[in-house]
């Protein structure tokens, strides 16, 4: 399996519901380094997995919808704990929607959010 990974970052504010989250139940900020990996069993006719420029632009576009936002105020996240894992899934799904017609043949997408040098969460999906 071939893969290409592009990287960007985003800063958000959010809070969590539930005792398990301790002090993170209060509004707090988070800065994530975001890796998006695109996988393909065989290279396309141009011998690439995906155009790196396209992947970079689309990742930025997806993150721009969340960057510098209080996620608690966004209707699509009402009643949801916007955990690192949850956000990885949201970003992956939005990337797939944006790239569908222009990146045919991609077999999988994985998104990893690094919330620190010690912790990260990922979501992978096959296409």
Which tags fit this structure?
Tetrahydropterin Synthase, Chain A, 5 strands, 33% strand, 127 residues, 2 helices, alpha+beta, five-stranded mixed sheet, single chain
How would you explain this protein's 3D organization?
It is a single chain. With 127 residues, the chain is α+β, with helices and mostly antiparallel strands. Helix content is 23%, strand content 33%. It has a five-stranded mixed beta sheet. Strand 4 (108-114) and strand 5 form a beta hairpin.
The DSSP helix count reads 2
What share of residues are in beta strands?
A: 25-35%
**Element-level helix/strand string:** EEHEHEE
Oligomeric status: single chain
- Corresponding CATH architecture: 2-Layer Sandwich
Lay out the secondary structure.
Layout: E1 2-14, E2 28-40, H1 52-64, E3 69-70, H2 84-99, E4 108-114, E5 120-126
Parallel strand pairs: 1-3
Antiparallel strand pairs: 1-2, 2-4, 4-5
């Amino acid at each position: 399996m071939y893969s290409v990974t592009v990287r960007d970052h985003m800063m958000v504010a959010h809070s969590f519901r539930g005792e398990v989250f301790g002090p993170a139940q209060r509004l707090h900020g988070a800065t994530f380094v975001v890796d998006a990996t695109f996988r393909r069993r065989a290279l396309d006719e141009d011998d690439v997995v995906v155009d790196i420029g396209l992947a970079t632009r689309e990742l930025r576009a997806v993150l721009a919808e969340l960057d510098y936002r209080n996620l608690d105020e966004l209707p699509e996240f009402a009643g949801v704990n916007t955990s690192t894992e949850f956000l990885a899934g949201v970003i992956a799904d939005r990337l797939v929607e944006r790239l569908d017609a222009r990146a045919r043949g991609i077999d999988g997408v994985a998104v990893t959010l690094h919330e620190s040098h010690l912790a990260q969460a990922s979501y992978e999906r096959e296409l």
